[in-house]
Amino acid sequence: MEAVKQKSRLSGLRQSFILYVLTTFLLVAVLSAFVIWSCLSLQNYLLPDSDQVYLTVQSDYPDGSSTSTTVLMSLNDALQEIPRNVPTEYNSEDPSAGEPDVRYSVTSIENSFSALSPRRKLVYRCSQIGMTALPVIFSLAGILLCGLTFYRRKLKTPISLLASASQKIAGQNLDFQISCGSRDEMGMLCDSFEKMRQTLKENYQKLWRMLEERRELQGSVAHDLRNPIAIIQGYAQYLQFHLTKEQINREKVLSAADHIMQTAQRLDRYTESLRTISRLEELEIRPRPVSFSRLSDRMFADLSLLTEKEHLELNWKNTVSEQEVSLDAKILYRILENLIGNAVRFAEKEICVRFSCKSGMLHVTVSDDGSGFPDKILNSASRYASIDSDGTHSGMGLAICRVLCRNHGGSLTLRNGEKGGAAVSFTLSV
Q: Three-state DSSP class for 79?
């Protein structure tokens, strides 16, 4: 059925063109037929009838003078003019009577055109030319009119819209909309161009968000790396100073080396997290239809193990249990694993996970009853990092989750609950 609809739409412009051509052809044919009929009628009016003859009457008078009159009339009328008892050529035998000798002659018309007056000959010739030339003129005018009308009604508006849109896109302006209102091929072309514009705009917006987040992430990393680097530098200077003066024992050296090692491990975790984020930004999302009820039960069974180890309660509430959604289950699982793993370090008694679905988006909230996020995490670029219970940074877990959400068409936000505790809300396109 979809193929039939597609074929019907694709033939719209062709059908319109054929309709315009047929209409023009019919109009030209009617006008040409009318012109030919009019010219033939005029010619028939101008030419004598086939039964018309020339009646010549010549009179010879006794005084030697004579008169001759020729009249064009029908054959019947001409015969009525001749006396019935007189032959076609009559000659009076009585000149003394003073009457003229009258002779009648009837001549048939062999060439009707030659019988016309000069003025009528001109009109006749013009009718002959018009009968031939006017249909040709009508045909040429019809072709021109058909082309102009078809272009004006079917092509001009879409072409103008597409040309204007191309210029705007070339000028990096994507804040406009294309709509020509037709259902033919040009309308489909405009619709496709509009979809391309929307895709370009979404990609530009996504790119700018990625760049902004990347800048914020770089700022956060640069800020977070200062402390470990300062610690390593401090212990290195400490060791250098005391070893030079030989005023340090073996235990202090080992303690300083241990602190340096721990700090170096923190730096290594940072670099590994950054490499992970770079890989995740190129990760291909593969959404598939899944039964969210079964998926939710499976994730609860797996993730509850994280809370049981710390003797915490996992409060799991799903309001989309009967709904089938399309998503990448691995991405959702990884996000929840990171967020619940972070919440375990801060929660006191329980961790709550809430699921809902609205307007094609899956809404998830992970909250705990701990101390909540520090203000510096909520109000600065460092909100992209995970934190320890002492407020120090220990990785880029939240940044990883944010990248995964963005790649799945969603977002991630941080906040503190009204009754305390931290809450992380994220959305995924389903």
A: helix
Chain Cα centroid distance, residue 370 = 51
Q: Are 52 and 109 in contact (CB under 8 A)?
A: yes
Query: With bands split at pLDDT 50, 70 and 90, how would you rate the model's confidence at 316?
Result: very high
Maximum mean pLDDT: which of 212-226, 245-259, 357-371: 357-371
Structure tokens of 211? 């760049």
Say if residue 7's pLDDT is above 60: no
- Burial classification of residue 73, based on how many CB atoms lie within 10 Å of its CB (0-12 exposed, 13-18 middle, 19 or more buried): middle
Q: How many residues belong to the chain?
A: 430
Strand, coil or helix: what is 389?
Answer: coil
Most distant pair of Cα atoms in the chain: their distance: 185
Short-list 21, 59, 275, CA closest to 146: 21
Instruction: Give the pLDDT confidence score for residue 165 in this predicted structure.
Output: 86
Q: What is the mean pLDDT of residues 174-180?
A: 81
Tokens of 267: 């730096």
Backbone φ and ψ for 157, nearest 5 degrees, come out as: -65, -50
Cα-Cα-Cα-Cα torsion 424, 420, 295, 395, nearest 10 degrees, comes to 50
Tokens in use for 5? 């609809």
Mean residue pLDDT across the chain: 78
Cβ neighbours, 10 Å, residue 384: 27
Main-chain phi, psi angles of 387, to 5 degrees: -135, 150
d(CA 193, CA 186): 10
Q: Determine the 3-state secondary structure of 245 from DSSP.
A: helix
Quote the percentage of the chain above a pLDDT of 70.
76
Q: Which CATH class is domain 284-429?
A: alpha beta
Q: What φ, ψ does residue 68 adopt, rounded to 5°?
A: -140, 135
Given this model, what pLDDT does residue 114 score? 65
| 65 vs 63: CA distance, rounded Å | 6
> What's the per-residue H, E or C state across 252-264?
HHHHHHHHHHHHH
Which among 48-57, 165-174, 328-337, 383-392 has the top mean pLDDT? 328-337
How far is C-alpha 145 from the chain's CA centre? 30
Q: Distance of alpha carbon 361 from its chain centroid, rounded?
A: 25
